[in-house]
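quick q for whoever's on today - can somebody do inverse folding on this one?? i tried earlier but teh output was garbage lol. tokens:
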């Protein structure tokens, strides 16, 4: 795999641009989601747990691996002539991919441990331990010597007994298949854990399971990558040999980055809820502002009309007259013209009975501009507005049977 054929007639197609764009786009996505996860935990003061530390470690491994792969393509990987330095870089990047796969999946398993009972925890511990054992074996094989393969007897490989090449390839295939199985198990495990909870609503269970089961996407990516990588054409040393290896690097990186991203999405639920509440509050505030401006416009038009009427009658506009109509008695749901006509009739009846003596049987209530131009906000403000509006109170009759309220004060007679 790592030794392309030294043939002067073959010019390999370089996938350097495609590889760099793919690797660093995936890394940027993983960085954004991991940063939002840590930010949510920091702002809500929940603190970091073991799964967060393992996830951060897998992110660091992904970054180092992408840097090494970028350096490989920048220093002659596409030429097909590899020296010992290039072989060492390839082995290191391959080990980084293996470690990133195992640790990113282990972070999800540790998260599930917090929600599991004893039987579920036993299954999860078995999956975690066995998966990491496969990872250690594959890392070891990456540096081991292979029996009967002179190209794998280099000085930088582990010195000692050689390993059967066929057995090594079988273990690698088994490890890749086991990783796919672990992805499906970890994706289905949240349904087993949360569906038996009685205090959660069904819709909440479904939402939680759906977000935590996004690892199914990673399982599909792993399956496609394994199938695509195991094709016979991958070992054909034609002009697309380097290009196919570059695309396989993108698939490996997508598995690690995707595993990091799908683990961060469930943690972002409070963050998304805060954004939704903020946008909803802004819309409500804008709607209230429009409604308030509409009322101001209607109120100013009404007052201007009354002022114009007062000027025609020779009245002083600086002081409210008896015909002043308070905005507080005009409701939004009724017709304004109808309300004005009703108030005018009541004020006309009031002037007819304003000369009644103190102690009259008619019950009175003030309907004048009690609160000025603003709605009452507190009891103190309401009292002050009542005092200020006492000089131009208007009295109307409400009940002819029982005396209620206060009668207007008697007229004062000035002494000559």
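ok took a stab at it. sequence:
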């Amino acid at each position: 795999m790592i030794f392309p054929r030294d043939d002067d007639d073959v010019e390999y197609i370089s996938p350097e641009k495609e590889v760099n764009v793919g690797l660093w786009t995936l890394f940027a996505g993983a960085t954004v989601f991991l940063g939002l996860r840590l930010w949510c935990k920091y702002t809500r003061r929940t603190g970091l747990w073991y799964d967060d530390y393992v996830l951060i470690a897998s992110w660091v491994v992904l970054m180092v691996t992408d840097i090494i792969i970028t350096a490989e393509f920048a220093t002659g990987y596409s030429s097909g002539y590899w020296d010992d330095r290039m072989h060492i870089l390839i082995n290191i990047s391959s080990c980084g991919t293996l470690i990133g796969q195992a640790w990113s999946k282990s972070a999800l398993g540790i998260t599930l441990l917090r929600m599991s009972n004893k039987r579920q925890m036993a299954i999860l511990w078995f999956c975690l331990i066995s998966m990491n054992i496969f990872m250690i074996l594959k890392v070891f094989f990456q540096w081991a010597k292979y029996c009967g393969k002179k190209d794998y007897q280099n000085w930088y490989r582990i010195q000692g007994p050689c390993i059967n090449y066929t057995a090594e390839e079988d273990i690698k295939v088994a490890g890749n298949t086991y990783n796919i199985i672990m992805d499906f198990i970890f994706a289905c495990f949240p349904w087993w854990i949360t569906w038996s909870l009685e205090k959660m609503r069904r819709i909440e269970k479904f939402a939680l399971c759906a977000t935590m089961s996004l690892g199914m996407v990673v399982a599909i990516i792993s399956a496609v990558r394994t199938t695509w990588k195991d094709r016979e054409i991958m070992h054909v040393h034609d002009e697309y040999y380097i290009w196919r290896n570059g695309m396989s690097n993108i698939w490996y990186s997508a598995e690690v980055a995707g595993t990091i991203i799908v683990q961060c999405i469930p943690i972002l639920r409070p963050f998304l809820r805060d954004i939704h509440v903020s946008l909803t509050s802004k819309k409500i505030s804008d709607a209230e502002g429009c409604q308030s401006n509409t009322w101001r416009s209607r109120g100013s038009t009404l007052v201007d009309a009354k002022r114009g009427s007062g000027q025609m009658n020779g009245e002083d506009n600086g002081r409210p007259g008896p015909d002043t109509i308070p905005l507080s008695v005009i409701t939004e749901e009724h017709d304004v013209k109808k309300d004005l006509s009703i108030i005018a009739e009541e004020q006309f009846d009031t002037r007819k009975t304003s000369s009644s003596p103190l102690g009259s049987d008619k019950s009175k209530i003030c309907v004048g501009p009690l609160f000025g131009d603003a709605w009452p906000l507190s009891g103190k403000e309401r009292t002050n507005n009542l005092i200020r509006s006492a000089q131009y109170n208007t009295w109307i009759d409400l009940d002819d049977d029982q005396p209620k309220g206060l009668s207007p004060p008697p007229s004062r007679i000035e002494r000559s």
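fwiw The beta strands are 364-366, 395-397. also The longest strand covers residues 364-366. so keep that in mind when u check it
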